[in-house]
Amino acid sequence: MSHQADHVVSASNPDAGQPTRVSRVKLAICALFVAFPPIIFYSLLTARGLDIPYLDDYDGVLGFLNRMVQLDPFGAKVSYLIARQDSEFKLVLMHGVAWIQFALGGHVDFRLLGAIGNVTILLLAIVLWKLFLPGQKDAAQRLAWFIPVPWLLFQLQYWDALNWATPGLQHLPVLPFALGAVYFLLQPKRASFWLALACLALAASSDGNGLIMIPIGMLILALRRRYARLAGWVAVSAGCIAMYAYHYHAILSEASGHGTAIMLSSTAAHRSLFSVILRMRPLYVVSFMGNAAGFAFLFKTSSIILGILLCLFFASLVFRGYYRRNPAVFYSLLFLLVTSIGVAGLRSDFGLEQSLLPRYTIYSVLFVILAWFAIVEEFVQPRRRPLLNDGIFLSAVAAAILFSLFMDFAGAHAIDVRNQVLVEAMLRFEHPTPQDPAPSPSIPVIGPWPLVTSSPFNPHAREVLLESMKLGIYSPPDLQRVEPH
Questions:
Q1: Checking CA distances to 392, which of 42, 71, 386, 451 falls within 20 to 30 Å?
Q2: What is the pLDDT of residue 322?
Q3: What is the 3-state secondary structure (H, E, C) of the chain?
């Protein structure tokens, strides 16, 4: 923030640097409002944890470990970790976490893997706090304006990526690492640059869109004339690209000599991540951006409307020169926008419903949160009104709280349904009948499409599970004691 903006803040609050009893009370109240949503969020998720694999977990976790435990020596295991490919992505972070858990505990626990993915939302909240009003000196005022953020972030609308090992360790971690890289790149200290490099490597290891940070980071450093750091960034970026290129399969197929398990790609029309030809589909992009208003496939039009409004608002920010006042937020928005375009290139062939998948909703939520950051900086903060008399602030807080509570209710119900179906499928697997002597533990995808009771994946999932049980990697829980909510 500029010196002029700092002067405005000081003028609006002459006691900013000297906490008073009133300011401490205000800080405590604001802290309670900020703490409530993560407490509710993690309480609901913890109560619904389930140690049963679901869909992608069979190949992504069990299939990976089934191959890993049979490799020797250690160098062969590391080579397989880097070479392993699921669909068009290298999920090194997810596979590494699963490998570490197995190495330490002697078995894999899907409840713990899902919890680790859930915790990355807390990391994301910390990064967002760092991006928010960096020049504001009054901690209580800054925290008050931040209140809508945790209510928007810590809610179960994106339940499809929560309490689920594979998407929870793919789609969620890339966000705090990518936005963290933006934040640290803009800091002057040398230690911050090393942290930015670590965030880049972790983002690229989490999901394919982590590679988007390579050109964004180069742009940041080049514009700031940090040429020595730019050379270091390019070197680490080359390592990330080399990791992806190592035994990368342009044509998805069955297991190769490098131990790649069967990869059931939902984007078979696109040969590889690097050969995607983006056919710009604005409707899909704006729907993806406005996913938070889609309410689990019920209102497609509302998601399109919200996406258009967000695009118009961000375009106005560029026109107002906002990127100079808070470049961290601007470059974070750029990362999310390029991700939206990339998802459109990969998934738009499968219809607009793909843009409304709950696992993607976290991106739309971040668009809304960063829009709130800009609203506070550009419109709320300069008005210098008392919070209780500020209609914009009060409306944002009320809307965020009501939205969060409603989505917690809906998301908790969706997880309960998923858990119930998972338990029933595993019970059938453990107790076959003469009518179904070889039942599969796999269940259909829960979504707006008709449920299919059988598919080519079902016998494959059964084979993977039986092999993992034989190798001592995973054993289903005692379902007689499991009572899904």
A1: 42
A2: 87
A3: CCHHHHHHHHHHCCCCCCCCHHHHHHHHHHHHHHHHHHHHHHHHHHHCCCCCCCCCHHHHHHHHHHHHCCCCCHHHHHHHHHHCCECCECCHHHHHHHHHHHHHHCCCCHHHHHHHHHHHHHHHHHHHHHHCCCCCCCHHHHHHHHCHHHHHHCCHHHHHHCCCHHHHCCCCCHHHHHHHHHHHHCCCCHHHHHHHHHHHHHHHHHCHHHHHHHHHHHHHHHHCCCHHHHHHHHHHHHHHHHHHHCCCCCCCCCCCCCCCCCCCCCCCCCCCCCCCCCCCCHHHHHHHHCHHHCCCCCCHHHHHHHHHHHHHHHHHHHHHCHHHHCHHHHHHHHHHHHHHHHHHHHHHHHCHHHHHCHHHHHHHHHHHHHHHHHHHHHHHHHHCCCHHHCHHHHHHHHHHHHHHHHHHHHHHHHHHHHHHHHHHHHHHHHCCECCECCCCCCCCCCCCCCCCCCCCHHHHHHHHHHHHHHCCCCCCCCHHHCCCC
